[in-house]
Amino acid sequence: MPQISVDYSERLADSFDRRGFGLALNRLAVKLIDATPEACKVRFRRVEEPVVVGADSDTYALVFVEFQIFPGRTPAAKAALSDAVLAALPEYLASEDGHLPVQAAVNIVDIDRDCYRGATLAV
């Protein structure tokens, strides 16, 4: 744990260093919420265009990061993680013209420890 999902706009596909950002997310989880490195799992999901922000479907791109974690972290630790993720994100984004606004958000959700199950399968 944590399970980390990153939804991102299709228009960022060629300019988003997903591997680098995924590794950064893992490091931040270890540092800020005491996760173990091998427990951090990141998946990226490309969101088809258009992404509509307000009344605009052409101007913006989107990155939404969600952490699903076991309960027990303080609100301050969760807020610090959210802030650190938003601060790190620009390092892994590049636009061709340098003027693509990216709407970015982070959400941290506690999951039910009693119901969650995970395993490493040998297939």
From TrEMBL:
GO molecular function, one term: 5-carboxymethyl-2-hydroxymuconate delta-isomerase activity
Class in the EC hierarchy, top level: isomerase
SUPFAM superfamilies per record: Tautomerase/MIF
Protein keywords: Isomerase
Enzyme Commission number(s): 5.3.3.10
Stated name of the protein: 5-carboxymethyl-2-hydroxymuconate isomerase
Organism: Kitasatospora paracochleata
